[in-house]
Every structure is written in structure tokens, then in C-alpha cells.
Design goal:
This protein is 36% helix and 19% strand. With 447 residues, it is α/β, with parallel strands linked by helices.
């Protein structure tokens, strides 16, 4: 399911320069568009790319109507439809959802890759148009897996669009990082790579803060209160961002709540085991996309010719060019496997490294790389509430990952809770999980 914003023309360019920042460390963009360490003379570049008026019945505001449409009710069934509507209504006193006009900004900023090298990236920022003196919090929504080169929030092409607009029009700013590999970034996306995603999501918050401090376009005032939420890769990005925010806080921001949903946080263990043992894994592109995105970590060990079977190199990897759909790639893999296990995608060496990692030095090295990107144990900033959301019937990300994540957090005395959505597949649970996140975030701020 994908709901897409209609893109508008770029109607103004805003340069936020000469504004002091509380964050002296991260890379960002200066007034010449060149990489620079944050200084008093550097800033964030933002473009006003679209706007939606207030009034949810207006022709341009079909995003909200999506949640009450008969088509959706027929698609997901009456009970799920009612629960999603209830979660939305219960998020506000008396069920009265505020209704603000929304402005869409594309932010350009700098972050780092896993090795600390500067990377130009972008994000979408939705800002409610409020009276001067009104205050709004900020929700960072981290998007799920995308394969298209033009995908990403700043190109107004992402699966969470309806939730983003609902959130912004009800009075919260919404920040959606593109991640490296989308938007401004020309590199291959480092799929579920913890440092790269953590830096990009944390630095997007710092960029948004500087934009709020400097831009004359934002109406209302940022309160400093922040929430994080994301599904699938977005859920993993939430955990990566939590880790980075704990290491390097953004001054002027308080993370109140984080909602990782269907997060593949145990890559080296449960994710690898569930994939390589499966003969019917629903999204077999996943390990190919991941390993291609991790090539820079160890270009020799993870070179495609060393880890993939020849047919995969010749006939399937070329489909990961950004111009083939996930369905096409998965279909080609399933046609090749013909019911055999996913291990048959890999070279004999790679099979050994995955199934018996302790037997060879390369197996041990691969296991260290995988473990370095596990996020089952994450230090959390003070006064942050964690709501883990997962489906017991998730066919892509084992539910036991969410259970172990909760157990580890409770051992560390973290305020954490696990909420199960109805027993749905990974793809089908998307809407239900986001309705829980929407409700939990608003309940946190209402109290």
C-alpha cells in the first residue's frame, strides 16, 4: 500500500544563515551549498515545495479522507477499520481533531556515513500553519523500505504520506529523513545499517531545529518536544536514532516517546536464521539489498562475486538498479529458487559463513559485521518512553525480536511496553501499527 502526495512546484528558497546553533559537531549545509562543520555562519537550506489548505473536505486534502473511505473499509474489514478510526479519534480530547493548513519544506543538510565521511542528504519537513505564539512538537517519521531512486519523502513519494499529513494538519510538525541513498544522496542506500541511519535521523533533527530557529516561514514556535516512529526499516531507523541521540543529544530537544514498529533489530540472529532456513520468505530481495548496501564496510569480503551464486549475479542483482519493483525482484528470485531454501542464492563460501560462522576467519568477520548492526540492546535518553509495536503473525520480521527487545529494555529499567496489533502479515500490519503509534504519541503529549 502506497499513498503518494502530488508534488508542487518549488515556490521559494530559504537560506538559514548567520544563525547561531546549539549543535557544534554535526555536518550541515552552509550558505554556499558546500559541506561545513556547524559554525555560527552555517545553516540549513530549505525549499518551500508545496502547501495544503486547512479544511479536510477540500479537494486537495484527500489524505484524511483516506482513513474514512469505504474503499479502505472494504479492503481491511470492518473491525480493523473501526479500530483505526478509534485510535485516531481517541488521540484528541472529545475526538475533535484540529485542522491546520500545512506547508511542505525540503531540507538539505549534511550527515555522515558509517565511516564518518560527510554525506549530503535531504528530508521533508511538514509544518502546521499556526497563530504566532502557538507552539507545536515534532514527530520524526522514519520511512519503510524503498527501492526506487526517486523514492523518499522529500520527493513526496513514500508510504507514510497519509499519516504524515494527518499528523501535521492536527498541529505537529513532521520530519521525514530521506536516508542516504535517496533524495540528495547519490550513493546506494545502506539498508538497515545502524550507524548510517542513526546519523542521518539524528542530524535531520538538528537540521530541523536550526530551520525552526532561523526561518521566517515557520508560523508558530517549536516546543522542543520530539517523538520518533517508524515501521520495518523505519522501525530499525528509530532504534538507530535513539542510540545516536543518547550518544550525541541535540540540545534544545527532548525525546518524549519513540515507537519502533516491526523493527528487524536482530540481524545477526533471528533475521538471518529466519531467512536462510525459509523456502517461502515473502520478500527474498531483503538479503540481496542489505548486502549490496553494506559493500563499503568490507569491499573484499562482501564483493558480490564472493558471496552470491553466479545466476544471482548475472540475472537478479541487475534488477536492483532502482527501476524494478520489489514485486519484480521477489518474483525473479522465487522463479529461480523454485521452492528451495534462500541459501541457494549464495556462493558455497557464503553458505558456510552464514551457517557455521565460527569455522573460518571470514565467517567470524561476517558475524562481527552483522552483530555490529544489531539493535537489540540500545541505551535510551532519559525520560523517554518506548512503545514497541509488532504483529504476532509477521512473516518477515519475527515477533520474537520485539519480545526480546522489550525484555532487554526492562532489564535496563527503561520505560518500555510491547503492543501487539492483530495477527497480520508484515505488509498488512502497516496501517494498524501506525494507528497505534499515532495514538500513543498523542496520549504522551496530552498527559
Amino acid at each position: 500500500m502506497k499513498t503518494i502526495f502530488a508534488a508542487g512546484l518549488v515556490i521559494s528558497v530559504l537560506l538559514c544563515t548567520g544563525c547561531a546553533t546549539n549543535d557544534p559537531y554535526r555536518f550541515n549545509i552552509d550558505y554556499d551549498g558546500n559541506p561545513a562543520v556547524f559554525t555560527e555562519n552555517s545553516g540549513v537550506r530549505g525549499e518551500l515545495i508545496d502547501s495544503f489548505p486547512a479544511g479536510r473536505g477540500q479537494p486537495g486534502n484527500k489524505m484524511i479522507q483516506f482513513f474514512s473511505s469505504p474503499v479502505l473499509k472494504k479492503q481491511i474489514g470492518t473491525e480493523r477499520f473501526k479500530q483505526i478510526q478509534k485510535n485516531i479519534a481517541d488521540s484528541f480530547p472529545d475526538g475533535n481533531i484540529p485542522d491546520y493548513a500545512v506547508r511542505f519544506f525540503r531540507l538539505h543538510y549534511w550527515t555522515r556515513d558509517y565511516a564518518g565521511r560527510p554525506v549530503a542528504v535531504s528530508a521533508l519537513l511538514l509544518v502546521p500553519v499556526m497563530d504566532t505564539g502557538s507552539v507545536f512538537p515534532l514527530v520524526e517519521m522514519n520511512h519503510a523500505t524503498e527501492l526506487w531512486p526517486y523514492a523518499g519523502p522529500s520527493n513526496l513519494n513514500f508510504s507514510e504520506s497519509a499519516w504524515a499529513y494527518l499528523t501535521a494538519s492536527s498541529g505537529e510538525a513532521v520530519l521525514l529523513p530521506d536516508y542516504p541513498g535517496y533524495g540528495d544522496s547519490a550513493s546506494f542506500h545502506p539498508y538497515v545499517q545502524s550507524d548510517a541511519l542513526g546519523y542521518a535521523c539524528r542530524d535531520a533533527l538538528a537540521a530541523a531545529l536550526q530551520f525552526f530557529d532561523c526561518s521566517s516561514e515557520s508560523v508558530g514556535k517549536f516546543s522542543g518536544h520530539v517523538a520518533l516512529a517508524g515501521y520495518s526499516e523505519g522501525g530499525y531507523a528509530v532504534l538507530a536514532a535513539i542510540k545516536e541521540l543518547n550518544n550525541t543529544p541535540v540540545k534544545g530537544m527532548q525525546l518524549d516517546i519513540a515507537v519502533p514498529m516491526a523493527a528487524p533489530a536482530d540481524i545477526s540472529g533471528k533475521m538471518v536464521n529466519s531467512i536462510i532456513s525459509s523456502t517461502d520468505y515473502p520478500h527474498p530481495f531483503y538479503p540481496l539489498y542489505l548486502l549490496l548496501g553494506w559493500r563499503d564496510i568490507d569491499q573484499k569480503l562482501l564483493a558480490p562475486q564472493h558471496i552470491f551464486e553466479p545466476h544471482v549475479i548475472q540475472n537478479i542483482l541487475p534488477l536492483l538498479d532502482g527501476y524494478h519493483t520489489q514485486k519484480e525482484i521477489d518474483g525473479a528470485i522465487k522463479d529461480y529458487l523454485q521452492g528451495r531454501s534462500m541459501l541457494n542464492l549464495f556462493s558455497d563460501d557464503m553458505k558456510s559463513w552464514l551457517t557455521e560462522p565460527g569455522k573460518t576467519e571470514n565467517g567470524k568477520l561476517l558475524l562481527r559485521i552483522l552483530k555490529a548492526n544489531d539493535l537489540l540492546s540500545v541505551a535510551v535518553p532519559e525520560n523517554t518512553r518506548i512503545i514497541i509495536v509488532a504483529s504476532p503473525a509477521d512473516d518477515s520480521v519475527p515477533f520474537s525480536i520485539a519480545q526480546e527487545l522489550l525484555e532487554n529494555m526492562r532489564k535496563e529499567k527503561i520505560d518500555a511496553e510491547l503492543i501487539s496489533v492483530p495477527p497480520l502479515t508484515h505488509d498488512d500490519a502497516f496501517l494498524d501499527a501506525w494507528s497505534v503509534a499515532f495514538y500513543q504519541i498523542h496520549q504522551t503529549w496530552m498527559h
